[in-house]
Amino acid sequence: MSPLPSQPRIALLASPTDDAQAALAMLAGQLGQHAPAEADVIVALGGDGFMLQTLHRHGDTHKPVYGMKLGSVGFLMNSWRAEEPASNSGQALLARIASAEPAVLRPLEMRVNTESGASVASLAYNEVSLLRQTRQAAHVAIELNGKPRLEELICDGVMVATPAGSTAYNYSAGGPILPLGSSVVALTPIAAFRPRRWRGALLKSSTEVRFRVLDPYKRPVSATADSHEVRDVVDVTIREAKDHTVTLLFDPEHNLEERILSEQFIV
Q: What's the gap between Cα 159 and its chain centre?
């Protein structure tokens, strides 16, 4: 990431919630407003869901993103410091951005083939997940780098999660928390019925994972990259995106690497 100018141009984006919109109005009044493509830094006001929306919509601008938690979940966000005087919030934000530490994330690239013959591609910063669409369990075969590894997984679903996403859906499904920068992804089953003892795997981030749905007509399956869902899939290929990264900015005292580490000691 290039050094930021002393007076960076800020693009302020906010979720629709009342608190986020109020913060947007206050900060825009003090700092002005720039379009994301013209800004030096994008500031996202909301929760993790809004942060993911921001990355998907504006990741191609290659601008660093500083998030502030004004939503229900904020693992990817910095705290909103309500105790700061409202009249000084803009300058305080600039000071925090100037001292922030960068975390470079490389998303997963999902490519899906559907029953209709369509091919759909999408990026995922947290995880790519497959889920059954009906009451019947999904039957999925797993290949790694073109080599069959599991002939049939009977389950509610299965996912591949990045380190940044490993504390989210992956962790709830019983997957491991991954250190940031570990160059590892988690392959985690969701409510596996057979084989019962299979708990997933840790893979090099360069591994190409392919899921084949074994009975897509009788047991339909959907695939989701973060919040982008594709239904009635036949097979899904997942690999680390080679030419796409985003940079998140975090306050030094509570950066993303520290958050991921701390999550492993919560009891």
A: 13
Give pLDDT, residue 73: 72
Q: pLDDT tier at 188 (50, 70, 90 boundaries)?
A: very high
CATH number of 10-105+245-263: 3.40.50.10330
Mean pLDDT of 111-120: 97
From 18, 48, 215, 226, active-site residue: 48
Q: Is 48 among the catalytic positions?
A: yes
Cα–Cα distance, 255 to 115 (Å, whole number): 43
Q: Are strands 246-250 and 41-46 parallel, antiparallel or unpaired?
A: unpaired
Domain ranges across the chain: 10-105+245-263, 108-240
Task: Give the C-alpha separation, 108 to 20, whole Å.
Answer: 29
CA atoms within 13 A on the CB side of 215: 12
